[in-house]
Amino acid sequence: MTGPTGPVGPGADRLLGAEADGEEQAIEAALRPKDLGEFVGQERVREQLDLVLRAARQRGATADHVLLSGAPGLGKTTLSMIIAAEMGAPIRITSGPAIQHAGDLAAILSSLTEGEVLFLDEIHRMSRPAEEMLYMAMEDFRVDVIVGKGPGATAIPLELPPFTLVGATTRAGLLPPPLRDRFGFTGHMEFYGAPELERVIHRSARLLDVEIDAEGAIEIAGRSRGTPRIANRLLRRVRDYAQVKADGVITQEIASRALAVYDVDGRGLDRLDRAVLTALLKLFGGGPVGLSTLAVAVGEERETVEEVAEPFLVREGLLARTPRGRVGTPAAWAHLGLTPPQGTGSGGVQSGLFDG
Ligand SMILES: Nc1ncnc2c1ncn2[C@@H]1O[C@H](COP(=O)(O)OP(=O)(O)O)[C@@H](O)[C@H]1O
Ligand SMILES: [Mg+2]
After folding, report:
1. Which of 153, 162, 176, 188 has minimal CB crowding within 10 Å?
2. Which phi-psi region, left, alpha or beta, contains residue 202 (left: φ > 0; alpha: ψ -120 to 50)?
C-alpha cells in the first residue's frame, strides 16, 4: 500500500493534533473497525451508506462514487476501507498530493479491476489536469491517455472497468463543483459526542488488552476534542502511565493524573491552546487583538496560532475571530478561572445590553 503520509504542517506532532504520522498509521490500522456494524457513531452517514452499499450489492453492481468530508481523525480512511470490505472488493489507496501528473492517475485507473475501490485521500489537493481526467473516468469509465508531446501528441481512449471512487477531503468547500457533482453520495462526518468517544475508547482498550473502567473512559473522552484519533492516542498515553505508575488499570484518577502530565487539560486544551488564551485574556484584556500581535506574545508563528490552536478554541466557543481581532469569550475567562475586567471588553458587551 502506498499510504498517504500525514501532512507535516505546523504542530503536526502534537499530542492533540488530529493528524497521524507514519508510525501512528500502523498502530491505527490495528484499531480500525472492519465493518459498518463496528463503526461507532455517525448514525446518519452510516445509515445512508448502508443503503447505498446494500442496494448496489442487490443489483450486483459496483457502488456509486462516495465523497467523505470532515475534519482529520473522524474516520474517513476507516470508512473507505469498510466500503471495500462491505462490497467484498479490493481497495487501492492513494492521495491527491501523490498524483502530480495526469499520467500518474491514468496509470492507477488503467490498472483497476472491476468493482475495485479507489480511495483518493485529500482529493482537494489533486492537480487540475488530473482532476479533469478524473471527471471522465468517474462518469464514463474512460480516460484519454496522451501519448507524445507537443503538436505530435495523440489521445488514446482507454476503457476502464467500473470502479468505485471514494474521495476524502477535509475541505469539501474547496472541491470544484463539477467534481463534487460526480459523486453519487456525500457523507459529512461530524465531531463525535462524549458517549460515542467512550465507546471508541472501550473498544480500543479491549483490542489493546488494557483494563479501563467507565469513569476512566469518560475522563479520556472529555479531553479528546470530539475526535476518535485523539481518543485512541490519549488512551495509549494513559495506558503507559497506568502501567508505569500504577497497576495498569485505567480509572478516572489515573486518567486525570496521566493527562495532567501530558499537559492536556479537562477540556482537551494543551499548552499552546492555553498559552494563546492566557495571553489574550491577561495581556490584552480579552481583546480584540490582532493575530500577529497575539502570535508574538506567545512566541509562535502566526500560522501555528491560526491553524493549530485557533480552530479548536473557536469550535469550543472560547475565542472569536472578529473583524477587529481576536476576542476571548466569557467561557474563556471562566475556563482559565480569571475575572473579566469591568466595563468594556468582551465580557462587558453583552451585559451592557441589559443595563438600562
Ligand atoms: N467511528 C469510529 N469508530 C471507531 N474508531 C474510529 C471511528 N472513526 C475513527 N476511528 C479510529 O480513529 C483513527 C482515525 O481514523 P481515520 O479513519 O484514519 O480518520 P481520517 O481518515 O478521517 O483522518 C483510526 O484508528 C480509527 O480506528
Ligand atoms: Mg485519513
Report:
1. 153
2. alpha
For the entire predicted model, the pTM comes to 0.88
* Chain segment 30-77, per-residue pLDDT in tens: 899 999 999 999 999 999 999 999 999 999 999 999 999 999 999 999
CATH code for position 300: 1.10.10.10
Residue tagged active-site, from 170, 227, 304, 329: 170
Ligand nearest, relative to CA of residue 78: 1
- List the catalytic residue out of 46, 62, 77, 329: 77
Do 218 and 181 lie in one domain? The reply is: no
Does 94 qualify as catalytic in the annotation? Answer: no
Please state, as a whole number, how many other Cβ atoms lie within 10 Å of the Cβ of residue 67: 23
Alpha-carbon torsion 341, 323, 291, 7, what sign? Answer: positive
Helices first, then strands: H and E counts in the chain: 16, 9
Count structural domains, the chain: 3
Q: Which ligand is nearest to the CA of 189?
A: 1
Pairing between β-strand 154-159 and β-strand 142-147 as defined by DSSP bridges: antiparallel
Decide if 170 is catalytic. Answer: yes
